[in-house]
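Subject: for your reference before the review

Hello V.,

The reviewers asked for a structural picture of the protein, and I figured it would be easier to keep everything in one thread rather than splitting it across files. Below is the amino acid sequence we used in the manuscript, unchanged from the supplementary table.
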Amino acid sequence: MDAPYCGHAFDLFRNVYRGAHGYISLVVCLFGSVANLLNIVVLTRREMTSPTNAILTGLAVADLLVMLEYIPFAWHMYLSIGSKTNRYSYLWALFVLLHSNFTQVCHTISIWLTVTLAVWRYIAVAYPQRNREWCGMQRTIVAIAMGYLTCPLLCIPLFLAFEIQSRVALIDENGNLVQTELGKANHNLLIDLNFCIYSVVIKIIPCIALTVLSLRLICALMDAKRRREALTSGSKKTPRNLENERQTDRTTKMLLAVLLLFLITEFPQGILGLLSIILGRRFFHDCYNKLGDVMDILALINSAINFMIYCAMSRQFRTTFSLLFRPRWLPVPQVDNGVNHNHTTTMVTQV
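And here is what came back from the structure prediction:
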């Protein structure tokens, strides 16, 4: 018998972490649900209107749906004290099937919008003169709608690959999630296609695109800064020009932080999925399956933490949040009215 790709240390790690995963994921989901709801409330205020913020709002909606749906799954799968037989009932199997499909669709939408965000920001920095035309609000709404409409179509192989099948074990009827006959046909062609779409199309290609866009964005930002310095050399910059430059830099840094978080959490999943295709089912069972809970929590953290990034790096986000939710007895925060709020290209980020 061939040695496993991943040794007993993986089994030990999975068993130890699995005992804590339910509690950790429940905390992350509860925090993420509230955080994404707050993101939506703040980003949809009239003074926050911009194409970038529209994409961030669409991203928050997709992440909120992931959080809300995972809560009952985590509770029943990891924390429920009731009979384990209930976990294998037909209704529970139906919920697991819907859970796997729904979360994959929502997470794919989140990935689509993250890539769109990177493209929009790159255009704003590299081609500022064309930004209003190429990345206006109307095209932004179309891009968001395309994500919500096309991502379910991209996940069709997942919908076709699994079904619920009733089996009798001892005296209990258990609902089991198994491969469909279509999924097993032609040497599991549909299953392999599903893995290929998941690992390559949904994970690796967006990660590569984000890496390239992020590097080009940094280079474009440095070039723009050098051009500004060359144009203003020998002349004194006005406070408004200085503030506008700082806003552009802070907006780009904030979005780069969002993109970096995405790469850290998504790229390893894509690599594991690709290796499952190349090395076969033994790698899937020896390694991929044992890291399933870890990949889940990484995806959940990625969906939950954007609120903290916005609060840390955007003064306008903090100010708007404070105006909406501060207690009445606290003083109203002062906003610099001399700042140029560019509602077409960026999320205003005064720090």
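For the response letter, the relevant points are probably these. The first helix runs from residue 8 to 43. Confidence is low (pLDDT under 50) at residues 169-178, 335-351.

Happy to draft the paragraph if you're swamped.

O.
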